[in-house]
Amino acid sequence: MGDGPKPNPVRTHPLTARPGLSEAAVGVLSKHWINTAEEVLALAASAQGREGLKKILSIDDAQLRAMIELLKGEIGPSAAAASPPSTPGGELGLALTPEQRRKIGIQSKVE
Description:
This protein is mainly α and 111 residues long. The protein has 6 helices and no strands.
């Protein structure tokens, strides 16, 4: 039963180990449950996510672009390209698929 191959765990890059990110920025992101470079890049893949990152970090477009490039360089281009974009959640952070929204009758502003 335990003799088969084990699944290859997804490698993540914790923000606490990223040179070039301030402790303050890492602390702010952590308060929002954003703890890895992959999570930042997934958020940055959408306009809404980029605006949210700029707001919580109190940074401008240029600073956000610099942070994104830094994180992409740290995790590598193939991992950065594989980061899926985030899906905005509801007021409580609940993210439902379009099918789940239709089943319970919720209209989505994102669809």
